[in-house]
Recover the amino acids of this structure.
């Protein structure tokens, strides 16, 4: 995966930040919105695309577009750097394949310990009962 090629596929849009800030926030577009279409990407293979769609399904739109925003800084350039950095981190996490679970059986000693604990608890509860004569 070539990060420079992926960077060229990203689309950035500068919009006005929300929240307090007075006159400055009303006239400066410092919030950066990044959008990346997984389906339209030329750099990702089909396997990588399906893995990303599966792992990032909660973050994607219906058209499989990932949208990230950053308005932490007053600088548009700094926000662009931050959102790009976060994009590549999310992409790296989305491309991780989950480890395959190996089925194991409990050992004889573990089974014996579990049964002994059950028996001990049963005896404890049995001793609490009041006998009727």
């Amino acid at each position: 995966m070539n990060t420079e090629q992926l960077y060229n596929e990203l689309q950035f849009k500068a919009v006005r930040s929300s929240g307090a800030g007075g006159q400055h926030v009303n006239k400066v577009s410092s919030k950066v919105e990044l959008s990346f279409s997984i389906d339209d990407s030329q750099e990702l293979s089909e396997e990588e695309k399906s893995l990303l769609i599966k792992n990032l399904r909660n973050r994607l739109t219906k058209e499989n577009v990932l949208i990230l925003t950053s308005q932490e800084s007053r600088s548009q350039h700094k926000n662009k750097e931050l959102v790009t950095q976060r994009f590549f981190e999310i992409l790296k996490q989305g491309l991780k394949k989950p480890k395959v679970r190996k089925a194991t059986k409990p050992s004889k000693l573990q089974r014996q310990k579990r049964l002994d604990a059950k028996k001990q608890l049963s005896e404890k509860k049995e001793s609490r009962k009041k006998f009727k004569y």
User: Anything to note?
Assistant: The first helix runs from residue 3 to 9. The chain has a mean pLDDT of 88.
